[in-house]
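Subject: sequence -> structure tokens, single chain

Hey, anyone have a minute? Need the predicted structure for the following. Not urgent.
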Amino acid sequence: MAVGGACRTRLRGGSHRAAPVHTDPEEVSVLTALSALADPVRIQLIRELAGGADWTSNCGSFDVPVGKAVFSHHFSVLRGAGLVEQRDQGPRRINRLRREEFDARFPGLLDLALRGDGAD
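Reply:
Had a minute. Here:
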């Protein structure tokens, strides 16, 4: 199920969504990082981001089996763990995986999570 409008910045009535808050990976505990990577939907989002170029995936391009509110929550968790950065581009919110920054903080952890060997 694609979640088209979950991250759009313009809401009905012309109001705007606040810009997302991003956490520096240097401020993230290992427990927060592990918790963010423990959810199958978040792993799917991370894998899709890892497979594409930075700033090319808008929120409507992900095919995940959750509703808009849950989808937005997952991105909030990923931002809070320092894994994802989002920015507004017109009416859409685009994403990038903060791989370099996250790998500097937790060397090898993201590679383990992305292995896809059925351990998740």
